[in-house]
Each structure stands twice: as C-alpha cells, then as structure tokens.
From TrEMBL:
Binds 1 divalent metal cation per subunit. Can use ions such as Zn(2+), Mg(2+) or Co(2+). Keywords: Cobalt, Cytoplasm, Magnesium, Metal-binding, NAD, NADP, Oxidoreductase, Pyridoxine biosynthesis, Zinc. Its cofactor is Zn(2+); Mg(2+); Co(2+). It is found in: Cytoplasm. InterPro entries: PdxA (IPR037510), PdxA_fam (IPR005255). The keyword Zinc applies. Pfam families: PdxA. This is 4-hydroxythreonine-4-phosphate dehydrogenase. Its main location: cytoplasm. Belongs to the PdxA family. Catalyzes the NAD(P)-dependent oxidation of 4-(phosphooxy)-L-threonine (HTP) into 2-amino-3-oxo-4-(phosphooxy)butyric acid which spontaneously decarboxylates to form 3-amino-2-oxopropyl phosphate (AHAP). Substrate binds at H136, T137, K278, N287, R296. It is an enzyme of class 1 (oxidoreductase).
C-alpha cells in the first residue's frame, strides 16, 4: 500500500479546506494518490456539509491513511480550536493551523508520509497570534532544521518550464537592497542547481539571474547593486560550474521566447518573481520550497476569503500541487 501525501489544512476560514474536500470528492475521477489531512474531523464535516458534499471523513493515522482513503477522507487530528466561519479568520485558530503544518512535516520527516502539500494560511492572522515566521517557507526551514541550524529555504513558483525564484522573499521592499548580498544570490543559485538535479533530473540547469534595478542598472547609472552584487554572484556561480546568466533586465526576462531558454529565473524580490507567473498561470502554478530534506508544494494562491465556503474557487492549483508532490515522491510510495 503506498504511503500517503500529508496535507496541512491551512486557514480554516479560507478556501483551503474547500479545495481539499472538493478534490477528495473527485478522487476516483481524478485518480488521486492517497493523502491525509492534518486537521479537525468535525470542522471538515461541517465545511463539507456547507458545500453540499456528501463525504465520509474519519480520524486516521498516516499508517492507516492509504487503506482508509478510498472510503473516507483520512484526517490526522491536531490540537486547537477550529470553527466553520468561512471568510472570518480568527487568531484563535492559529494554534491548530500551526500544529497542522508541524504535524504534517513531522509525518514526512519520520517517513510516515512521502511529501507535504500545504493549503494556504492567513499570514496576518498568524502574525496577530504571535507567529514569528513570515510564511510557510521560512517555518518549514525551521521545522526541518537539524542540530538547531536551519538551512536557507528557497521559494519557487512553477508552471511547466516557467519557474521563478525570489532571492529575497517576504520582506519589505525598502529592505531589499540591504538584504541582497552576493552570498545570498550564490547560495540560492546553488540550492536551485542542486535541487534541479536531485528532484527534477535536470543535471545542468540554465539559470537566468535578473537585475535589481531598471535595465539591470544600465552600467551603474541606475543603481550600483547590479554591478557590485548581482554580477559578482553570477561570476561566482559560473566559476562553480553552474550555468548562470545575468544580470539580465527583469522587464524583458519574462517574455516567452526569453524565459523559455532557461530552466529557472532568479528574481531579486518577491513581486519581481511572482507577478509574471501569477499573471500567466494563476490557476495552474505551484509554489514549491527547495533546499529542504522533504518535498513541499502548495497552490500559488492565498486564502481567498471572498470565496471560502462558496464552492466557487478553482481547485486547479491545489490539484497541480498534489500532482507535483506525487510525481516528485513517486519513488518513495
Ligand atoms: N501558500 C500560502 O499559504 C499563501 C499564498 C499566497 C497568499 N497567502 C495569504 O493569503 C491571504 C490572502 O492573500 P491575497 O488576497 O493577496 O491573495 P489570494 O490569492 O487569497 O486572493 C487574490 C484574489 O484571487 C482570487 N483567488 C484566490 N484563489 C483563488 C482560487 N482558487 N480560485 C479562484 N479565485 C481565487 C481571490 O478571490 C482574490 O480575488 C494573505 O494572508 C496571504 O498572506 C498564503
Ligand atoms: N509568496 C507566496 C505567494 O504569494 O504565493 C505566499 O505568500 C506563500 O508563501 P509561503 O509558501 O511561504 O507561505
């Protein structure tokens, strides 16, 4: 019997539980691999009823999940309070949201599950409850840390061959130039090269590296970071044998004939990477974390509070996240 994927339930007031339930309802038609949700049985039953989905939902351990999956949605119970109030996020749910992620990660690290798919969290609600991490990406690095030392987590959004990696992630835009260092770009490029080889079978990925400033600084006339930080990082990666190209002007990097020459684009900040891919592939792109000892995928969208509990949200990106995690961990099933 194959090992299940672990799915964290995400923000209970958001769209994540809806997508998990609607995909589970179509498991046979979609030929889905077995998965278990780290969450609350009663909450998921209430949401399924609200959505008009007639499903069996049962508490299970990861070891039982693959057997239970054909007849009932397996739920690994987590601690904490969760109520079915779509669109109305409460910091009271934060403990359960965090326990869901932590439990799912532990199940993958211990070998009970083969990969992690996370449903969207409400970052503002978690911050309000004292959560210290900017998002999943950074929290996962801490959960996977060995010997107290967390590795650099790398965010990548992917749709087909279009893959974009922000070097700085969840930070204020005013802080980006100060946080951008040659070492950070080189470390990110190394992790991308390593994980492409290990997880995607691409031995020598071509990595385009965007400039920070308009026109990649125009020879230093429009900001010096491209000359003094990005270009030396590209040179260092090339010296190490990694096919890095740049700094390239970011505004023209994402027209199809351009990015299609590369396996990944390293962008200097969050929106430089995410706007192009969410613009062309919002319903289909997947968010992955590289640099971890586990496979983690997620849909590319957030909690969509305006759609939670309505059944009108698209489950395509969540489906793509499950399929990608399944494909990346097939050998472990
Ligand atoms: N992986 C994650 O955990 C993750 C990812 C992105 C955003 N977020 C969080 O989600 C919250 C809301 O963020 P936001 O409003 O910027 O982005 P959002 O993606 O939740 O919503 C943006 C717009 O896209 C629509 N949308 C989102 N998902 C959809 C779907 N599946 N089908 C149809 N339409 C959909 C929404 O209705 C809304 O109009 C924030 O707290 C943010 O931090 C979490
Ligand atoms: N930056 C991501 C996005 O907009 O899609 C999102 O915030 C998710 O980040 P985490 O996976 O770190 O929660």
């Amino acid at each position: 019997m194959s090992k299940p994927l672990a799915i964290s339930m995400g923000e209970p007031a958001g769209i994540g539980p809806d997508l998990i339930l609607s995909l589970y309802a179509r498991r046979a038609e979609l030929d889905l691999p077995p998965f278990c949700v780290f969450g609350h049985v009663e909450f998921l039953k209430a949401r399924a009823q609200r959505l008009g989905l007639s499903l069996d939902i049962a508490a299970a351990t990861p070891a039982e999940a693959a057997i239970v999956f054909p007849s009932a949605l397996p739920v690994v119970p987590v601690e904490g309070l969760v109520a079915d109030h779509p669109g109305k996020a409460s910091p009271l749910a934060a403990h359960a949201v965090i326990q869901s992620i932590a439990g799912a990660v532990e199940a993958v690290l211990s070998g009970g599950c083969r990969g992690l798919v996370t449903a969207p969290i409400s970052k503002a609600s978690l911050y309000h409850a004292g959560f210290k991490h900017p998002g999943h990406t950074e929290f996962l690095a801490e959960l996977c840390a060995r010997g107290g030392v967390a590795k650099l987590p790398v965010m990548m959004l992917a749709h087909g061959k279009l893959r974009a990696v922000p070097v700085t992630i969840h930070v204020p835009i005013k802080d980006v130039p100060g946080l951008l260092t040659k070492e950070l770009i080189v470390d990110t490029g190394r992790i991308v090269a390593h994980d492409f080889k290990q997880r995607f079978g691409i031995a020598n990925p071509r990595i385009a590296i965007a400039g920070l400033n308009p026109h990649a600084g125009e020879g230093g006339a429009i900001g010096r970071e491209d000359l003094e930080i990005v270009a030396p990082a590209v040179a260092e990666l090339q010296f190490e044998g990694i096919e890095a190209i740049g700094p390239l002007p970011a505004d023209t990097l994402f027209y199809p004939a351009h990015w299609a020459q590369y396996d990944a684009v390293l962008a200097m900040y969050h929106d430089q990477a995410l706007i192009p891919i969410k613009t062309v592939a919002f319903e289909d792109a997947v968010n992955l974390t590289l640099g971890l000892p586990i496979v983690r995928t997620s849909p590319d969208h957030g909690t969509a509070f305006d759609l939670a509990g309505t059944g009108r949200g698209s489950d395509k990106s969540m489906l793509a996240a499950i399929r990608m995690a399944d494909a990346m961990t097939a050998q472990a099933s």
